[in-house]
Amino acid sequence: MSVANLRPNIDHWPERVDLAATFRWTERLNMHEGVANHFSLAVNEEGTQFLMNANQMHFARITASNLLFLDANDPDVMSQPGAPDPTAWGLHGSIHRHCPHARCVMHVHSIFATVLASLADSTLPPIDQNTATFFNRYVVDQEFGGLAFESEGERCASMLSDPKKKVMIMGNHGVLIIGSNPADAFNRLYYFERAAETYIRALQTGQPLRVLSDEIAEKTAQELDDYPDQSGAHLREIKALLDADGSDYAT
């Protein structure tokens, strides 16, 4: 598939609607970054064909129909009209090309995740339920190499080979979340930002931290992994709130 075929259409419509809703809610939570940052969603079995937001479009204006449809294996994508942001192509294209388990990929520079990524030690200790959610479930990239063009994207993709590691704390950069669908990825993104905020605010007190044992942290993380359909309910309620406000995300 080629960006030459980009047009408003109803292909993969339910997936488009769900992904568009997550952009709108991310903007409402002030976790966006102007017209930067990108979410993508694989729509074929191999994971190589994916939806992604258009170049330089604010999250508050993204709709189901204006999402791009791209193929990670198409060498001509960046030379055609309507091409995506080159750093988004470098990062998301590389991940969808090499990590078929990364069905939905969300990358933001949200404040607290980015503060965490800026610390000399960017690990997230389990000090409450939200931070424990991510115990042994993230990787820390300590080799920031500039904007995520093709080579940087390939390097980041190589760090996501373990399906259990669904969060990349991108040192000096931000955070990248993967999930099985938009609901799963957004729910993880939301709770990671909450967890990072809790940790940063706890550090600001200057008091000793009450860190959970590895055993309890892992138990908590597994219980949350197994919790029934929280992510689906979260996105369902977000869409209901957007619908009640008359949002055009689903157009």
Model description:
The chain has 251 residues and is α+β, with helices and mostly antiparallel strands. The protein has a single domain, classed as 3-Layer(aba) Sandwich (L-fuculose-1-phosphate Aldolase). A seven-stranded mixed β-sheet has the order 3-2-1-4-7-6-5, with helices on both faces. Helix 5 links the parallel strand 5 and strand 6. It is globular, with a radius of gyration of 18 Å. The protein starts with 12 loop residues before the first helix and ends in a 7-residue tail after the last helix. The N terminus is likely disordered.
What does the secondary structure layout of this molecule look like, with pairings?
Layout: H1 13-28, E1 38-42, E2 49-52, E3 68-71, H2 86-98, E4 104-108, H3 111-118, H4 129-132, E5 138-141, H5 150-157, E6 167-170, E7 174-179, H6 182-204, H7 214-225, H8 230-244
Parallel strand pairs: 5-6
Antiparallel strand pairs: 1-2, 1-4, 2-3, 4-7, 6-7
Helix pairs in contact: 1-8, 2-5, 3-6, 6-8
